[in-house]
Amino acid sequence: MEALNVFSKKLWCVRKQLILFLTPLLLLPLLFVLPVKEGKCLYVVLLMAVFWCTEALPLAVTAMLPVCLFPTMGILPSKKVCPQYFLETNFLFLSGLVMASAIEEWGLHRRIALKVLKIVGVKPAWLILGMMITTSFLSMWLSNTATTAMMLPIANAILESLFGDLQTLKENCKVKEDPEGQSQVKMHVLPSEKQVLTVEDSRLDGVERPDQRSPEEIRKEAEYQMKVWKGFLICIPYAASIGGTATLTGTAPNLILVGQLKSYFPECDLINFGSWFIFAFPLMVIFLFVGWIWIALLYGGLNTRLCINKHDEREAAEAKAKAVIDENYKKLGPINFAEGSISFLFILFAVLLFTRDPKFVTGWAILFNKGYVSDAVTGVIIISILFFFPSECPSLRWWTNRQASNTPYVPLLSWKKAQQCVPWNIILLLGGGFAMAKGCEESGLASWIGGHLQPLAQVPPAVAVILIVAFLACFTEFASNTATIIIFLPVIAELAIRVKVNPLYFMIPATTGCSFAFMLPVSTPPNSIAFASGHLMVKDMVKTGFVMNLLGIMCVSLAMNTWAMQMFELHTYPDWAHPLNTTSTQATLPPLNSTG
């Protein structure tokens, strides 16, 4: 038994090497039982899928496999594979990452977060809502991981000011009555509002004193406060994942959708930054609201009063929490020239992307040759300004002042900083997804798979949307959302063609569903960061995340069958969908709640 245990440990240590060696061998039969080109492409796709899901190789390295495998296996020539790694979609993503780097460089994101928290106050339910609103807004523009990493320390500082030391709180959850029936635990005494703000009140001297409440009261109050603490921590990664869905640059799957649409359906120009925002922002708001209600109910209730029984202590704790927020905000000082400049360029960045071609009105792109200006062009123009715009206000006096420093001016962002902050591996991952999609298209694999999905034509499209979102939300719990959408989007596009449904009706919810990874710590980096704090357990995330997944599925289904139906004309089968299936003819579909 001991020998078996030792062997299993050794096996676990070399698991990645075994996967790298065994997977290509186990997949070899595909090359002989399927049509030649389709079999080769499926071999590469499944090989990459296994490596992505198990992370046997780094994600970016796996993403580069098409560069060597597609040409050598005769699937796609190198001159068609390599350009896929830097399409205009990658430039749009790079623009968003560079803008986020500048925002982080000058601390604008922290100012926004603290300002929102000052506005919402420190009542539990409202503070959780404030945390979620702030996190979701920032993750629309920054990476979900960076947003979570910034917000968690702020949350912990506020929580400690409200409830005191976490270790003491945990000990109070285990309070037992002594033989004389009295509690011997000394509670952490929080100072009153007057002490915090003026240090003149001697009503509380800050000295520990015996708590007069019964052990049961102490334990119940501590347990309740621990629940609220968990609610604060768990709402941040969830809000980051939800917020990332609202903009094209907010999360990688959104850009994978745009890139694969341009590859499969070149004539489809319905999805851009503006049209996506109009669709996804209301969806984000609805999901955020119902998610807040669920988290607030689960971790303390929709309670606007702080969960401390004594009125004086409650007021003191609230005052101290407000003081923590105010103090941190004051440390930032007044908005300087660099922050003001970044704010202006950030707003300009968002406005120009939104108004280029929002579809419901004529955008400014009409001023240029049709099809020449894209979101990528807009993004690169704005971020280029960051590298030469001064971080200090220019002054005419500098030219005449002999005492002034003659050091070169510092721009808002240096290329060295951009190199450090931009996750280049994600750009390679996007490119690998586009290369895989191109291979599936040209090898005929997408059509071959679609031919085997014909039985699904009997499922009503509205039900199919729910099933697609549910499946991908479950799958992405165990694999990265980028890898998940890369693997399944070509299949989903071909499924839509086969059942004569507008491809966007399946592809948009699939893309959104890939961001709904709430149940496990390993599902997304934000979940991992929150779990690493040591205050959450896996069962907390599973219990909360399961219902969050259900709420997300319902919200996406609502969006697709209401405003998205009109925005993208999902009730008809479009002309642009024919490149994938040249044998089909244009048709007007029956209502989407019917079968077939």
From TrEMBL:
InterPro entries on file: SLC13A/DASS
Transmembrane domains' residue ranges: 17-34, 85-103, 124-142, 231-258, 270-295, 335-355, 367-389, 462-492, 544-564
Pfam families with a match to the protein in the record: Na_sulph_symp
Recorded GO CC terms: plasma membrane
Chief location bin: membrane
Topology within the bilayer: Multi-pass membrane protein
GO molecular function annotations of the record: citrate transmembrane transporter activity; sodium:dicarboxylate symporter activity; succinate transmembrane transporter activity
Keywords carried by this UniProt record: Ion transport, Membrane, Sodium, Sodium transport, Transmembrane, Transmembrane helix, Transport
Subcellular location as annotated: Membrane
PANTHER family: NA(+)_DICARBOXYLATE COTRANSPORTER 3, SOLUTE CARRIER FAMILY 13 MEMBER
Record-stated family: Belongs to the SLC13A/DASS transporter (TC 2.A.47) family. NADC subfamily.
Protein name: Na(+)/dicarboxylate cotransporter 3 isoform X1
Protein's organism: Chanos chanos (Milkfish)
Lineage: Eukaryota, Metazoa, Chordata, Craniata, Vertebrata
